[in-house]
Design a protein that fits this description.
Blueprint: H1 2-20, H2 26-33, E1 42-46, E2 58-62, H3 67-79, E3 84-91, H4 105-115, E4 121-124, H5 126-136, E5 142-146, E6 156-162, H6 167-180
Parallel strand pairs: 1-5, 2-5, 3-4
Antiparallel strand pairs: 1-6, 3-6
Length: about 180
């Protein structure tokens, strides 16, 4: 009888465990997602006012972390991957945001420049970057990592590209194909 009660208690405990389980953190979700992502997918590291997008291919995760921490972790994960490399986009508005309207923006610009040193960064107006992401979200997965940053135009938009096939290799391939079609 005592053994049966112990088994019943263990069974009830095992049933109740999922209710106490914590959702996976953003770092875990990034680690799970990255092997599945490839060229044409995006990872966005955004400020806290970035809107929740409704496209079916967009997944948004609240990190409760600083933006610089998240950017650093994402780039580290991408750099350690075997299959993708980052094409980085930032808002063209950022260099023009005045300190008087957004306290901390000057320090942020210095810090993000240091973090992204060595990467090619493409600067586009915010609405153009959003339009690209909206279009990509119709077909490809977009992972949005919301941060605790409260400075406008600070989002870092990373379009993933193939690590083992360069843009130059693609261009040479297309030239060969075009020449053979003549």
């Amino acid at each position: 009888m005592l053994l049966a009660m112990k088994r019943l208690a263990l069974f009830i405990l095992l049933l109740a465990l999922p209710a106490f389980a914590q959702p996976a953190g953003w770092k875990t979700r990034l680690a799970e997602s990255l092997p599945l992502l490839g060229h044409r997918n995006w990872i966005l590291i955004v400020d806290s006012a970035y809107p929740l997008q409704s496209s079916p291919g967009v997944e948004t995760i609240e990190t409760n972390a600083s933006q610089l921490e998240v950017v650093s972790a994402v780039l580290d994960a991408i750099n350690h991957s075997i299959h993708v490399r980052p094409d980085i986009f930032m808002d063209a508005e950022l260099p023009f945001v005045p300190e008087a309207d957004a306290p901390g923006v000057s320090a942020y610009r210095t810090q993000i420049a240091g973090l992204l040193r060595g990467y090619k960064i493409q600067s586009l107006p915010h609405e153009k970057v959003i339009a690209r992401i909206d279009e990509a979200g119709k077909t490809f997965h977009i992972l949005v990592l919301k941060t605790s940053l409260t400075i406008p135009y600070t989002s870092v938009f990373i379009q993933l590209n193939c690590k083992y096939w360069s843009d130059d290799a693609e261009s040479r391939l297309r030239q060969k194909m075009s020449a053979s079609a003549r």
